[in-house]
Amino acid sequence: MGDARPDVRSSAGPVGRGILDQYAQVIGLDLVQFDADRSSPEIADEVAQDEALAASWAVYATPSFYIDGYWIVGSQPSRRSSK
């Protein structure tokens, strides 16, 4: 993606609509469909179902892995994933 990628590191809190629009444009999404989907009650219901499923498994961050009885939550240094 090179330099065209929006910089989300400077934003605090949830990623805003403007940043999402920039990413959608950079990766070539149909922006009309993207906007319609994010405003859709049906899509909102699917997202709510996914959130409820994640919560039922106590998954509150991505990535999350459950390996040999241990939760590994959030991004990890690459050296840790080789163990």
Low-confidence stretches: none
Profile the largest sheet: 2 strands, antiparallel
Give the class from helix and strand content and strand pairing.
mainly alpha
Tertiary shape: flat
Topology:
Elements: H1 17-26, H2 31-38, H3 41-56, E1 64-67, E2 70-73, H4 78-81
Antiparallel strand pairs: 1-2
Detailed description of the structure:
This protein has 83 residues and is mainly alpha-helical. It is built from four helices and two strands; from the N terminus they run αααββα. The chain has helices at residues 17-26, 31-38, 41-56, 78-81; strands at residues 64-67, 70-73. It has a two-stranded antiparallel sheet. Strand 1 (64-67) and strand 2 (70-73) form a beta hairpin. The radius of gyration is 16 Å and the shape is flat. The mean pLDDT is 82.
Short characterization:
The chain is mostly helical and 83 residues long.
Which key phrases capture this entry?
83 residues; two-stranded antiparallel sheet; 46% helix
